[in-house]
Amino acid sequence: MAFEGKNAVVTGGGRGIGRAIATVLAAKGAAVAVWDLNAGGAEETAAAIRASGGKAIAVAGDAAEAGAVAAAAARTRAELGPVTILVNNAGITGHAPITSLTEEAWDRIMRVNLKGPFLVTKELVPDMLAANWGRIINISSSSAQTGAPGMAHYASSKGGVIGFTKALAVELIGQGITVNNIPPGFVDTPLVREMLDVESVAKSMPMKRAGTPDDIAYAVAYLASEEAGYVTGQTFSVNGGRYLF
Hints:
Layout: E1 7-11, H1 16-27, E2 31-36, H2 39-51, E3 55-60, H3 66-79, E4 85-88, H4 103-131, E5 134-139, H5 143-146, H6 152-172, E6 177-182, H7 190-195, H8 198-202, H9 213-223
Parallel strand pairs: 1-2, 1-4, 2-3, 4-5, 5-6
């Protein structure tokens, strides 16, 4: 799986799973634009890639705001060229029982987790159509597959990502573009550690460990590769056996 000559965008690439994805794609030869709301995190990821001999730029902006997406895409194209690999990873989470879930919280999570991938994909897919080649990988969540108490808004937004993946895969089929999604299981990231005792929760997982960001990143690398050219519209679960289908 080599990505020399390919340009990739990874949203939410400033830490955690996004950082691992950007790093793995760069290590395999892609030039990577690390998009993140946090400019410092994006630059840390890009700098680490460059220090390892890869090519990367940091692009700060809100992936759920159309103007910011257009500006980020313009800068990426100016510095790297057309984009043919897109990983829609940026997202937020939250917990609230339905009786106290506010409209504001619902709208915020839908804006970032579902509207964001739509805006970024709409902006970048013309590059793929022009190249007659593209890979779109959306990061969803196993919570959309299993359900999750107190996470109706989050699970719904990620379920929307799965539906978006399938619809877009069918729309773009035959044009050299594949669209797939990965619903991670329980993954040890800084965000998760802010909310949970990772070691305790990991004991309840079928594999008795948490996933790592690299577990997700290498699955993304496969779906972005030439070798995965016959795979589209799929939900590629990377969850250590948490959900089987």
